[in-house]
Amino acid sequence: MGYFVYIIGNIKKSKFITYVGYTNNLEKRLEHHNSGKGAKFTRGRFWKLMYYEKYKTKGEAISREYYIKKNRKFRNLIKNKFK
């Protein structure tokens, strides 16, 4: 069993929005986001998986999630690949 750090994206009114999170079940988590049961920020939008990484431990995943959330340069690089 592993943990995933992921970036999901949504385009709304020509604005590209991203969200970073971690989970141990990527498919189920994306379903939650798209059904309105995910994080409050993600409700009411349709999300697509843009990027993910897999880690062995929850601690590693949380650490990487924190890094990606704070690193706007990395997130913008991922955004630009999808524009």
How would you characterize the overall build of this protein?
By secondary structure, the chain is α+β, with helices and mostly antiparallel strands. It has one domain (3-82): 3-Layer(aba) Sandwich (GIY-YIG endonuclease). Helix content is 41%, strand content 33%. It has helices at 26-35, 58-70, 72-82, and strands at 3-12, 15-23, 48-55. The protein has a three-stranded antiparallel β-sheet with strand order 2-1-3. The longest helix is centred in the C-terminal third of the chain and has 13 residues, at 58-70. It is globular, with a radius of gyration of 12 Å. The mean pLDDT is 91.
Please give a quick description of this structure.
The protein has 83 residues and is α+β, with helices and mostly antiparallel strands. It has three helices and three strands, in the order ββαβαα. 23% of the residues are buried.
CATH topology: GIY-YIG endonuclease
Give the proportion of residues in helices. 40-55%
Shape: globular
Instruction: Report the span from N to C terminus.
Output: 33 Å
- What is the tally of helical segments? 3
Write out the strand line-up for the largest beta sheet, numbering strands in chain order: 2-1-3
- Mind telling me the C-alpha Rg? 12 Å
Question: SS-based structural class?
Answer: alpha+beta
Domain count: the total is 1
* CATH architectural designation: 3-Layer(aba) Sandwich
Number of strands: 3
Describe the largest sheet.
3 strands, antiparallel
Q: What is the highest CATH level, the class? A: Alpha Beta
Order of helices and strands: EEHEHH
Low-pLDDT ranges:
none
Taking all residues together, what is the mean pLDDT? 91
Strand content: 25-35%
